[in-house]
From TrEMBL:
Superkingdom to which the source organism belongs: Bacteria
Protein name: Uncharacterized membrane protein, DUF485 family
Species, as recorded: Lampropedia hyalina DSM 16112
The keyword Cytoplasm is annotated on this UniProt entry: no
UniProtKB keywords: Membrane, Transmembrane, Transmembrane helix
GO cellular component terms listed in the entry, alphabetical order: plasma membrane
Length: 107
């Protein structure tokens, strides 16, 4: 009967695993892509506020609200949606890969 690996041995095995390296690259690329998209949307909205206030101030319909309100709400909803996308992918694809890596490291 073999003894289970120590914590240090587990960490070393995980770090040397090619699947772990691919996971890190895939997760980092995906995370940075979503970050860049979010920054473009958020700072695009801020730039619109700074440089085209008249567009955002246009009333919609009978003048109850302005164009800026639904666009701002869209920025908030976009944030929630991309967070959901990341969580979904992390809980399906990434967690499955992590489980395989942990099983390999425990051998």
């Amino acid at each position: 009967m073999s003894t289970p690996p120590s914590s240090a041995q587990m960490v070393e095995r995980i770090q040397k695993n090619p699947a772990y390296q691919r996971l890190r690259e895939k997760r980092n690329t995906f995370g940075w892509s979503l970050t860049i998209v979010m920054l473009v949307v958020y700072y695009g909205y801020i730039a619109l506020i700074a440089f085209n206030k008249s567009f955002l101030a246009q009333p919609i319909g009978s003048g109850v609200t302005s164009v800026g309100m639904p666009i701002g709400l869209g920025v908030i909803l976009f944030t929630v949606i991309i967070t959901g996308i990341y969580v979904y992918r992390a809980n399906t694809e990434f967690d499955a890969i992590i489980d395989e890596i942990m099983k390999d490291a425990a051998k």
